[in-house]
Amino acid sequence: MRSRHWAIRAAVPLLVAAGLVVPRASAASWNAAAPYQDPSLPVPTRVADLMSRMTLDEKLGQMTQAERGSVSNADVTTYRLGSVLSGGGSAPSPNTAASWADMYDGFQNAALATPLGIPILYGADAVHGHNNVVGATIFPHNIGLGATRDPALVERIGRAVAEEVSGTGVDWDFAPCLCVARNDRWGRTYESFGETPELPSSMATIVTGLQGATLNGPASVLATAKHYVGDGGTTGGVDQGDTQLSEADLRAIHLPPFRAAVERGVGSVMISFSSWNGARLHGHQYLITTVLKGELGFSGFVVSDWNGIDQIDGAPGTSALDVRTAVNAGVDMVMVPTAWRQFIDLLRAEVQAGRVTTARVDDAVRRILTKKFELGLFEKPLTDRSYTSTVGSAAHRALAREAVAKSQVVLKNDGNVLPLARGGKIFVAGRSADDIGYQSGGWTISWQGSSGNITPGTTILQGIRNSAGSGTTVTYSRDGTGIDSSYRVAVAVVGEPPYAEGQGDRPGSLGLEAADLNTIANLRASGVPVVVVLVSGRPLDIASQLSGWNALVAAWLPGTEGQGVADVLFGTVQPAGKLPVTWMSSASQQPINSGDGKTPLFPYGFGLTYAKEDSSPPTAPGTPVASAVTSSSATLTWAASSDDVGVAGYDVVRVQGSTETVAATSATASATVTGLAAGTSYTFAVYARDAVGNRSPRSGTVSVTTGGGQAGGCTAAASVQSQWSTGYVIQVTVTNTGTTSLTGWGVTFTLPAGHAVTGSWNVTMTTSGQAVTARNAAHNGSLAPGASTSFGFQGSRPNGDTRLPSGYACG
């Protein structure tokens, strides 16, 4: 892939004015004007060449991150900013995936309009799905994922999140949180995978899911290990508080997950607001530079948290002392959401005064640019819209449902009231039963979260109705009134209202609120067995009420796919979740952790199942049958397996000799395999899994040959978007004029003598002399009858030549 020609920078304003973008999906074939623009060169060579061309102000701009609400496109260009972010709940209007992509491309085009054309990084807190975007798949918060004890599942979730994030343009995710939560009073407990260092360390697989095998691969998103280090161990569980530990304990408890992330090549690390033995971490040179960058060998860049450097000197606002202390400590990029101009001025003055060395600035900028080059942003700067449709896709929601089911922890089940039987009458109550906002928690659409149908999804009540079936009467009352003895069982879905850091700290009581206790009391008064489902971001103090409950399930904060909760309640999926944290006997025990000698209500790792030890695998699925085969996908269906404790799901594998690779997973006897190459033969088979992990014999195999991608019955219409004395931008609209769907297309045209194609988008383009062939990209090859798509290209020509390409033909 050749890099972009310098002339694109001159044309950017014309591109923007014409409403055109250069998608990240396209491999633009620009003629290299400088070594840093040549992707064939090693990244260190490109970085060195680019830095040799940069002024001090351009370098300071790279070290600056501003919030989208406080910066304009023109500011990005003028100040050469290195990054823009969306804070929690900060979104374009309307809040759709397409609007996000348009916003991102606007900022990125502004960055490309700078003299050196350095792209920005755009950051967002996609901490349990792309949770700022309405319609995105919302996965369980980390505490629930910790309960699954399934690193492979977490890696798959990281991949799904990366696809949804990429579809909105965002290329940097402020996740995962690798904190080790040691006190449940902390309002960020739910952001932790668990209380022991081993559990968050094992879940660092999400870094690989987000970033992919390589940073410039499909839907690769820069991951962020946060918050370094010890934020989950503050005294009293106070957010942004002081972690009072010896260095040996800090290293033993809180450092291992970051070591695991570094070993997986995490691209960035975010510093914690908190302190270690009274010293603010944002200014801690020993922990940032000596330990993280030196001892652990972290080669990415370090970013501050939201206005995090402001707290170094203990005074409000950003000061020169804050700036030089943070940068000299090893912070490479500073998140200054609103005061970013002041930060640049202060840092410039500190450098000019010699209090921050140019060598430290160069080290920071080198680290930042390295990741931009490794991400491929210089070649693919704009949104890859082939992933936009994955936001909230059925496949991702199915994965989230699987994760929800695996995260459920059954803590009590007297009289085997669970799993719920179908038939008869079931009464459901509780404010968390029919509320997407409550079951998703904080960091969902808004920073602190909120109640109501804030984004599409399936509530727990809807899941119960779906699972109960038409032969069961399901009645819902928010406060539990209206129940009588005619009901077979009552399910109370109660817990915590949404919250995030700061507002989520609970220094006092950790019990249920009065409204929830009253709801449960109303149910108990009927004499009907009561199943309590706790929707919460941490263990709650429920020991004094537990004896009056027949069953208890910790559902954590499941996200949008409440069907997964019902799957476990009805036994469709066997409960397999284990506590990722110790469950207190009373709030007075906090902090309580595994191995500390305190007697818990339920110990770390506790979790019941419905079935006795099961070693019998499911029966083999039927041989799959292929349908809806396209150039890039195929749908497979098969006869379902059977199992004595229930089939939990299926794995579709690609068979290549003796090698098998999982191509898709499904909770039902059908799956669509995507990402296939056109004109290629594949062999697939299916395995079934039960709730305890037993795998069936393999099904028979099916061979599938994808479409060859040849087009026919189409037209190509060219329109000039802009032109100047030495070049032009042309958009070509391809329309399927036939009566059947196209699975690929190609357009040929002729360049006048002396002309050359200097860039293209939404297409793969080759030239032979003056003849040009443009073939569809992966995301726009399929066209239904009458449907259209478009691609574009930029051409150069001799000064004064007014001729344009001609002879467009589609076939």
Strand proportion: 15-25%
Fraction of helical residues: 25-40%
How many β-strand stretches?
A: 32
Biggest sheet overview: 6 strands, mixed
The averaged pLDDT comes out at 92
Total helical segments: 21
Q: Give, in spatial order, the strands making up the sheet with the most strands.
A: 12-17-16-15-13-14
Q: If you compute it from the alpha carbons, what radius of gyration comes out, rounded to the nearest whole angstrom?
A: 28 Å
Describe the structure using short key phrases:
811 residues, 6-stranded mixed β-sheet, 5-stranded parallel β-sheet, 25% helix, globular, disordered N terminus
Describe the structure in your own words:
By secondary structure, the chain is an alpha/beta fold. Helices cover 25% and strands 21% of the residues. It has 21 helices and 32 strands. The strands form eight sheets. A six-stranded mixed sheet has the order 12-17-16-15-13-14, with helices on both faces. Helix 20 links the parallel strand 16 and strand 17. The two termini are 25 Å apart.
Briefly, what is this?
With 811 residues, the protein is α/β, with parallel strands linked by helices. The protein is built from 21 helices and 32 strands. Helix 2 (43-52) crosses helix 15 (358-374), helix 6 (142-148) crosses helix 16 and helix 7 packs antiparallel against helix 16.
